[in-house]
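U., I forgot to send this yesterday:
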Amino acid sequence: MATDAPPPPRSGTDPAAPAHPTTEEFTEVQESAEFGELRRTYRSFAFPLTIAFIAWYLLYVLLSNYAGGFMGTKVFGNVNMALILGLGQFATTFLIAWLYSRHAANRLDPQAEAIKQHMESGSRPGTEARTESRTEADA
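Result:
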């Protein structure tokens, strides 16, 4: 399948083009403390919310199957508990999406951008801290 995009420039062919990291450089960044922190930050948000939402969804399904009397309880007019809890599923989905968007913008994106800048500049995450600690030790 052909694409309209030109192939990426190879390292060394155009001095103005950014150098493409090697596989070893990607592996080094993946094993860095900064990348580990980015993963932990993501997982500490995503996993608990995913588990909570699945539990909430399964509760709704179980109540729908085994608690027909409760789900049929009229709250007001023709609106019953099943309808309220069902709409609550949609509301929860949008709430989680909004919370994740805020979390990503405030916590994940800055960390990922720092890692990206380190890769593009050719330095590795954490090298500044080691350099600073060496200069402090020399002083």
